[in-house]
Amino acid sequence: MNVTTLTTLAQANFPEAMSQITLAHYLVISTAMFTIGLVGFLTRRNLIIMFLCTELMFQAAGIAMIAFGRYHLDLSGQSFVVFVLTVAAAEAAMALALVVLLFRRKESLSAEEWKDLQG
Amino acid sequence: MGIAQFINPYVLYALLVLGAAGVGLAMPRRGTTPQIVGALVGALAFGLILLFMGLKAASTEGGVSNLPNIYFYIFSLIALGGALRVITHPKPVYGALYFILTVIASAGLFLILSAEFMAFALVIVYAGAILITYLFVIMLATQAPEEGQDEVLADYDVSAREPIAASVVGFLLIAVLTTMMFRGTSQLPAPAPVNQNELLASMPRKVERALLTTGKIAEGDKFESLDAAANVIIIKKADGTLLTIPQTDWPEEMAVTNPEALGFNLLREHPGTIEIAGVILLMAMLGAVVLSRKQVQLDEDAKAARVTQLAHLDPGNEPGVQSPLELGSPTSNPTGGAAS
After folding, report:
1. Given CB 3.0 to 4.6 Å as the disulfide criterion, which of B57, B122, B230, B273 pairs with A21?
2. Domain residue extents for chain B
3. Phi, psi of B67 (to 5 degrees)
4. What is the pLDDT along chain B (340 residues), one digit of tens a residue?
5. ipTM of the complex
6. Which residues of B touch A107 (CB under 8 A)?
7. Chain B within 8 Å of A114 (Cβ-Cβ)?
8. Beta bridge partners of B242
């Protein structure tokens, strides 16, 4: 790798440009993973699996952001994935604390146990 | 321009229907289920979509350079297969383990996209921290099987809710999203490159170390400044004279790496966001501590359900004679009451 070609930060990080067709491949993967997470969230009745499915959707969003960042030769996409990770960690901590509470009260992980909650 | 540039839309929609059918079949259901067949059909549909996209990419102008890396196909198939298994496996522990597989495969995709830092952060934070928390909660919140019995899956794990409707809606969403996305990508603006000279000027020690290890400067020479316009580095030698190093002489080690550039981007462009992220994490930690410290009594309905369940398992015991707490103890032998 010749240093003279590294005139820009972007080129230093991204060795060669990415074509739109390659970008489309990543977007299809991201969409498919997001949809799998969505279908899982809608169908499964175990609360833990439902939260795992939200993590799947976060993961898909991260892939899309990093692929777009690579296509635009911009690092902000990667920076945003850092924040996605933060939100995912916070969400996991809170959701799991709630799940443990629910289990202590009802001895069940079924999402339908929340039906008593009102207003 | 449009979706036809990437894949024949009719092929895509047909394969999405196939994928929806596969995922719908693969969801857990009571009784004997064609789960394996469904998972295979779903995986086949995703594989064929990728294959058709690859064939289309190879046949358009530009040829091989349009194709993603071969590892892209491997990682994305592993990631999607793992994701499919997360949502179809009846046992939560296995679901969490398959999710780790998906995370590691996505880290591979990130590596292909030259996001090295995020790839490793993903493995450490997701596979290392978040998923271990999930596994702990799964172990805490799962009833241990009664003595002498096989593990029984809970009712809410055995059957999914409306699997067919959900997969139809989900795959309709894929169809719409892909159609919209591919219309949009042809109008993306040209990338705006960022100058790496500015970053190098902020890292004098890195420049000095790189120049020193390659023998361009001697021990004791100090970085003076970086002239971005002329693309030269000015070094102040130990005896006070200035040395100019043009860009053609810059060593390869001086190139800004991904973690360095990402750090600059994070702290320069989004400093407030980082503070907010820290506050969110702190609040989540406090919330989780407060929530889990709370003492919770077993709900009346759940107590009653448990008593009848135990009485059903053990006809020799009168439900009412023992307190629910004693009934719940693992030492109660199902055959003990009948023998005495």
Report:
1. B57
2. 3-185, 196-254, 258-293, 300-333
3. -75, 140
4. 466 777 777 888 888 888 888 888 888 877 767 778 888 888 888 888 888 888 877 776 665 566 777 888 899 999 999 999 898 888 889 999 999 999 999 999 999 888 889 999 999 998 888 999 899 988 888 776 666 666 667 777 777 788 888 888 888 888 888 887 766 545 445 444 456 777 788 888 888 888 888 888 888 888 888 877 777 888 888 888 888 888 777 887 777 777 888 888 888 888 898 899 999 999 998 988 888 787 777 777 777 777 777 776 655 554 444 444 444 444 444 444 444 3
5. 0.86
6. 143, 298, 302, 306
7. no
8. B236
Choices 3.90.25, 2.40.30, 2.30.30, 1.10.10: CATH for B196-254: 2.30.30
- With vertex at residue B104, the alpha carbon angle to CA A78 and CA B157, rounded to the nearest 5 degrees, is 115
pTM exceeds 0.90: no
| Angle (CA) B172 B176 B179, round 5° | 140
Angle in degrees, 0-180, between the axes of helices B92-112 and A20-43, rounded to the nearest 10: 170
Q: Which residues of B touch A29 (CB under 8 A)?
A: 76, 79-80, 109
Contact A78 B118 (CB under 8 A): yes
Domain boundaries defined on chain A = 19-109
Is domain B3-185 in CATH 1.10.150, yes or no?
no
